[in-house]
TrEMBL record:
Matches recorded under InterPro entries: LMF, LMF1/2_C
Positions of transmembrane segments: 12-34, 46-73
Biased composition (Polar residues): 342-354
A Pfam family it matches: LMF1_C
GO biological process: protein maturation
Superkingdom of source: Eukaryota
Coiled coil: none
Sequence segments annotated as region (Disordered): 309-354
Domain Lipase maturation factor 1/2 C-terminal, residue spans: 97-235
GO cellular component, as recorded: endoplasmic reticulum membrane
Protein known as: Lipase maturation factor 2
Length: 354
């Protein structure tokens, strides 16, 4: 559908959804009022009536206030909204009692998704793009599956693209570390260092461009994205460049002391580094899904192989108490029945039954 068709659909459904919400709230209030009529005792009836009045008034007020930010999604519906709702919302807006829907309710990709593309060069004339593992870059690469992994740097690059680079001071530090060729920072961009275009030697110059990305049309083969250059995001800099040094001083990011040498004698540290080296070829999402699957398999095996105590039934309880009853009755019998006396010499002694 086109943007015009979407706007027409919003005009058609926004006001009816408001009336639907009002009808639902009215039904709930009437239901609460009916329950109040069933309350017995004048004291309980009075307390319940006061409670219903307070909560009902607060609920209706909040509902009316929430209609204003809800109507932001469709301008004509916002204009036709009751003027009293606007006045009430304006009076309590500073309290932030109601807000527009969504964590990011104003989406940034409607006019094209802004993206920052880093570039490096050895001579300042021939530039090579630095491809990230997850964020859009190469227009021929499909979007990767990320869940449940949260790639922090790629996510922050999207936030950086929403404004100038001065709003994201960490970006200047990222440029500095790429010029220095810091391996931990490079691995945040590409886990497979061979895919990093400057893995043999750090770039002499680094710059950044801002593009707008759109998904390609269904008929465009071999391309997932189409993009349009917008502006230069970060100027070309090198180590010792006055612009870079000025930005580092401005944000307090200068290297103040040499990094501490890592001790290699710690057995735990060596073991953790070995585990990280073995797992580094795996994609983060694959590793996380593997760990979740392993935990699930362990739980299933524990449930299947664990000891099970059968539920005790009345019949089992009766069988459990029978031996005690028999023993008690036997003891009572021995006390009640007298010992047999000796008969004549020709008769034998009767054995005592236990």
């Amino acid at each position: 559908f086109t943007f015009h068709q979407f706007s027409q659909w919003l005009k058609m459904v926004t006001l009816p959804t408001m009336w639907l919400g009002a009808a639902s709230l009215t039904w709930e209030l009437l239901t609460a009022l009916w329950r109040w009529t069933q309350v017995r005792g004048w004291l309980r009836k009075f307390c319940t009536a006061a409670q219903l009045l307070v909560f009902g008034t607060a609920t209706v007020a909040l509902f009316v206030i929430s209609l204003v930010p809800y109507s932001y999604i469709e301008p004509s519906s916002h204009g036709h909204l009751w003027s009293g709702a606007h006045r009430l919302f304006g009076a309590v807006e500073h309290l932030q009692l109601a807000n527009s829907y969504g964590l990011f309710r104003r989406m940034t990709g409607l006019g094209g998704r802004p993206e920052v593309v880093l570039e490096g060069s050895y001579d300042g004339h021939h530039w090579m793009e630095i491809e990230f593992m997850y964020k859009p870059g190469n227009v021929s690469r499909p979007p990767p599956v990320v869940v449940p992994h949260q790639p922090r740097l790629d996510w922050q690059m999207w936030f950086a693209a929403l404004g100038p680079h001065t709003h994201s001071p960490w970006f200047t530090s990222l440029v500095l570390r790429l010029l220095q060729g810091k391996d931990p920072v490079v691995r945040l961009i590409q886990n497979d260092v061979a895919k990093y275009p400057f893995h043999k030697q750090p770039p002499t110059y680094v710059r950044a461009q801002r593009y707008k990305y759109w998904f390609s049309q269904p008929g465009e083969q071999s391309q997932w994205w189409r993009r349009q250059w917008v502006e230069e995001f970060f100027p070309p800099v090198s180590l010792g460049d006055p612009t870079l040094d000025m930005l580092l001083r401005q944000f307090g990011l200068q290297d103040k002391s040499p990094p501490r040498a890592r001790g290699s004698g710690n057995t735990l540290a060596q073991a953790l580094r070995w585990i990280r080296k073995q797992l580094s070829p795996l994609e983060a999402s694959t590793l996380l899904w593997g760990l979740l699957a392993a935990v699930g398999a362990i739980r299933v095996m524990q449930a299947l192989l664990g000891p099970h105590s059968p539920p005790s039934s009345p019949l089992a309880k009766e069988e459990k108490h029978r031996p005690a009853a028999r023993k008690a009755s036997g003891a009572a019998g021995r006390q009640a029945v007298p010992a047999p006396e000796n008969c004549s010499s020709g008769s034998s002694q009767i054995p005592r039954r236990k």
